[in-house]
Amino acid sequence: xxxxxxxxxxxxxxxxxxxxxxxxxxxxxxxxxxxxxxxxxxxxxxxxxxxxxxxxxxxxxxxxxxxxxxxxxxxxxxxxxxxxxxxxxxxxxxxxxxxxxxxxxxxxxxxxxxxxxxxxxxxxxxxxxxxxxxxxxxxxxxxxxxxxxxxxxxxxxxxxxxxxxxxxxxxxxxxxxxxxxxxxxxxxxxxxxxxxxxxxxxxxxxxxxxxxxxxxxxxxxxxxxxxxxxxxxxxxxxxxxxxxxxxxxxxxxxxxxxxxxxxxxxxxxxxxxxxxxxxxxxxxxxxxxxxxxxxxxxxxxxxxxxxxxxxxxxxxxxxxxxxxxxxxxxxxxxxxxxxxxxxxxxxxxxxxxxxxxxxxxxxxxxxxxxxxxxxxxxxxxxxxxxxxxxxxxxxxxxxxxxxxxxxxxxxxxxxxxxxxxxxxx
Length: 425
Fold this sequence. Notes:
The chain is α/β, with parallel strands linked by helices. It has helices spanning 2-20, 22-25, 28-31, 39-44, 54-74, 116-122, 133-169, 174-186, 189-207, 222-230, 245-248, 265-275, 309-322, 342-347, 360-366, 384-388, 402-409, 415-423, and strands at residues 86-90, 105-109, 213-217, 234-238, 259-262, 279-281, 300-304, 327-329, 349-354, 370-373.
């Protein structure tokens, strides 16, 4: 079923890519991210989606437009004229911290809402500094233009989706399956967000005239594709996680960086199948602490919440019913952490309970911590632990072969070695 789903999306892309232009390549249809959208889950679990109306999504687009207006006012700093050759763009500065001593470089943050105040107070460089006042008129015009394009092709697109869904997915409700994704991408908040990122990276391209490389954490997000399409510098995506097979098969998108640096042998073989010679082993920029990590002697049960509010609610209800005594760690994009680091929290745990799409299960395994991965019936399994250990000599229930697993998953290069590999590209 998954292969038919991807085939359907490929057929639609071949027909509508030119008609919708760049905005198709950064739409939710093209992104195919099972973490961000419900379509894949609904198909695999044979769930009939709730009907949606267009007006609330138009209001979301208006809200997103004014949200970028607020960001413009908040981060209206003096632009840098520093003639850098290397630019880091990241929403989490810790993910690429090992590479920041790269010569002639600067860091641009894409702060989460929970970080806005901190970034503003610290005067760190921020992506939103590159929003111009004139961009708001331009984006308003482009929004109307793409809305008209959507209306012009609405009947054809709807008919194609219905026919392909029936033929490939055996679903009579094809339009209902995809309608929310389509409305958000071509009329709603996703369209506004993509237009702003397109403009921001065009402005960055004009500001950094000597720029040679842009390095960013690779996750297949829409803003990454806007970066690739709208800047002339060489793009280098750095993998900071271990994706599951279900997630991996959605990242083979046509808009990809010039190079993808992965964290070890396992991810190298995973990505090589999709990206060929673009892939190289950089090493782990984010998980160096696992190199010599000790076995946890903790006694707590730790419930780890993710970025999906609905799954978090279900997970807390599950914990309350079946676990009773536990401590909650919130996702950093939801609540600004006021507790210790993830390593410190894991060292206090004997067991973690979490959703299926988190790499923390891999980290916990290497620390000798039991993971209870709760998979709810409405969701597809995105568990990277099961994928990482899918070898006959690995047993997820035992911890006596952790060093072998660690060598398979991670290459712990020094910062100097990773920087050298970046410079050679």
